Amino acid sequence: MRETASAPDDAKRVTMQVSTVGIVCNAALTVFKLVAGIVAHSSAIVADAVHSASDILGSLIVMIGAIFSNKAADASHPYGHEKLECIASILLGNILVLVGAAIGYTGITKIIHGETLAAPGMLALIAAVVSIVVKEALYWYTIAAAKRIRSVSLKAEAWHHRSDALSSIGSFAGVLGARLGLPILDPIASIVICLFIFKVAFGIFHESIDRLVDRAADTDTVAAMRRTMLRTPGVVRVDDLNIHQFCSLPVERALRWLNGREFDGRHALVAEPLLKELNHRLSFMTNVGLDYISLGRTMTTLSGGESQRIRLASQLGSGLVGVTYVLDEPSIGLHPRDNERLIATLRSLQGRGNTVLVVEHDEATIREADHIIELGPGSGAHGGDMVYHGSFENLIKHSETLTAKYMRGDLSVPIPDERREPKGWLTLRGVTTNNLKDIDCPIPLGTLTCVTGVSGSGKSSLVVDTLYKHLALAQGIRVDQPGSIRGIDGVEAIERIVAIDQTPIGRTPRSNPATYTKIFDEIRNIFAMTPDARKRGYQPGRFSFNVKGGRCEACSGDGQIRVEMHFLPDVYVTCDVCGGKRYNHETLEVRYRGLNISEVLDMPVREARQFFSNYPVLERRLAVLEDVGLDYIRLGQPATTLSGGEAQRIKISRELGKRSLPGTMYILDEPTTGLHMHEVGKLVTVLHHLVELGATVVVIEHNTDVILASDYVIDLGPGGGENGGRIVAAGTPEAIMADPNSVTGKFLTEERRTRRKLGDG
Radius of gyration (Cα) for the chain, nearest Å? Predict the structure, then answer.
């Protein structure tokens, strides 16, 4: 049986032993060949002697590598030091390259200049033969040790020995050729040996670097590992899958796989109750529109809507009764097709004797509700009253609330009479991001484009991960993990790319609508120009609560003080010095039209617009906020108290404040989240306004009103997960409705029919 080294100490011992033998032999050869070359008048043998002397350096590198690479793991290097051996191999490879280059250069020089060798003595031939024999013996000795301890550095050293043997063969050929009257053999042999040494060095580089960067195993190795694992006791598989492979399946495929399993005898006794329970629970996930996600997917990668529906699915399997379930917009991210299944799921919860309370703007959910409570009549300070409660039928027939008017068709989101013609096209070619199936996707420029499709069909993969990130890269913006494409055409038409999402406009209460939209800069300038401020020498910075001077120092301009509670969440209390006004007494004494800076920041947008009507710049920016449906928010309202939809519309308002937007592309991911039908109408108007200013707007959306109001629609599907990733239909909303393959088109047609029926009724 072949001896193997099983411990780092054994590997170190073998390496040191082999390297010592190599150093001794090379030292002896160096002395012998040097003497023989001088005595026999052979420059080739003298050069070969120098080559052998360089081999001693190679052996020393291997020994040093063995000393350090076999050190035990420590706190700074928990995985050991074995990668140092790869570095030693790379150094030896460099030495091989230099040796080969020197041999090749010498040969080429001799051919070009016609140099010849003087006939050397017989001792030179003897020295060459001895060198060949010794170096070839060292090769076999070293390569055997390298295989035994699986050492890449010893393997490199072995091939170093063989290159020396080949070099000596070249020297032998040169000496013999000179003695026989054929001196050209010497340089030709040198060039051939040079190429061979380069090939060996490349192999050493390749293997060492692969090990250094932990290259993945090849297909044959993986297959062999798989066979070994399956033969190992304790590895459990059911038919063709182990537990890891099963958890990697999407819910839909996992259900199909479970339904295809059959068990006999005692296996059936164990498996049947488990199969029943698994089918039961996975069906719940399908019912809430999560059939496209894999079972092993981490919770951090799920959206808020997906997380909420997973929790809902777990409740479906609990079998509890007498429970009140409260859900906040469970339809977020759901296509109308998937929303139908969600409504059926909520009905099943209610049918078991539970109460289901849903906060929702979705029209289908409102129609299916047993009891409707509508708050209003407006937003912010204009809301807070219960304007209706009762059945859907009474809402439609007798109520005059905003929701009732939209549900009846008295009010509706405007649909353009004509669809805009594209001003050009941007085409993504060969998109394979996530579940996308190598698609080519043309996107019209100068239009409002809606990308829709069932849940998990690949909308975010196409628009956010691919379109946005690749356009951002083209403009020098750093992004993480851009999608996979073959190419993109028309990118030169996009001068600016902006993603308007629902992330907060600021992480602290210091951020607010006024600061984000630059309205606060104008307001501070106005206060600084008042007679009282000029008399006191106050500059605009005096009226900022973010810098010292004008702010209340007791709370540092926050208006509240944090009280740390041990083992409990921190508590915030109103500052007792400024009373929550954020400014000191001297600053609050300065007034404009009877109001101080704190009172102005506390004004709603609608009042502020009237208050500053004589300042055109300020009035225009406030008008934009009002146009996007944010007339009710306060100028100084902390960013932390704004919803995602409000934050998104504030971002849109800042863009609308610009005069023109040619070459700009805006990307919005489900902007209608949390919006009432009335607010959706305002949003659509704003998006069209962006297009009128010269921009291109691309939205990911399921809302039928937004889809119908778009110039161009891209419908992905036909299903979710593995069953999605294709363009089912593309064109105007009318073209989508006319396409029999489009699930979205069917719902758009049904939505129009329902509204006509309600309006006629």
Answer: 39
How is 49-116 classified by DSSP, letter by letter? HHHHHHHHHHHHHHHHHHHHHTSPP-SS-TT-STHHHHHHHHHHHHHHHHHHHHHHHHHHHHHHHT--
Least trusted range by pLDDT, from 301-315, 317-331, 600-614: 301-315
Tell me: domain 417-504+642-761, CATH 3.30.420.40, correct?
A: no
Beta carbons within 8 Å of 687's beta carbon, 6+ residues apart: 448, 652, 668, 671, 697, 699
Domain 251-370: CATH superfamily is P-loop containing nucleotide triphosphate hydrolases (3.40.50.300)
> 437: Cβ–Cβ under 8 A, 6 or more apart, which residues?
725, 726
Q: Which of 179-193, 446-460, 487-501 has the lowest mean pLDDT?
A: 179-193
- CATH 3.10.690.10 fits domain 507-641: no
**Model-wide pTM > 0.85:** no
User: CATH number of the domain at 8-212, please?
Assistant: 1.20.1510.10
| Spatial separation of the C-alpha atoms in residues 114 and 107, rounded to whole Å | 10
Q: What is the DSSP letter of 604?
A: B
First to last CA, the chain: 93
Q: Does 237 score more than 50 pLDDT?
A: yes
Phi-psi region of 397 (alpha: psi -120 to 50; beta: other; left: phi over 0): alpha
Helix or strand run (H / E) with residue 326: strand 324-328
Predicted confidence (pLDDT) per residue in 736-749, tens digit: 999 998 989 998 88
In angstroms, how far is CA 338 from the centroid of its own chain? 26
Query: What residue segments make up the domains of the chain, in order of their start?
Result: 8-212, 251-370, 417-504+642-761, 507-641
What six digits make up the tokens of 100?
């080969």
Of 444, 363, 449, 362, the residue nearest 715 (C-alpha): 449
Q: How far is CA 139 from CA 45, 433, 652, in A?
A: 20, 50, 73
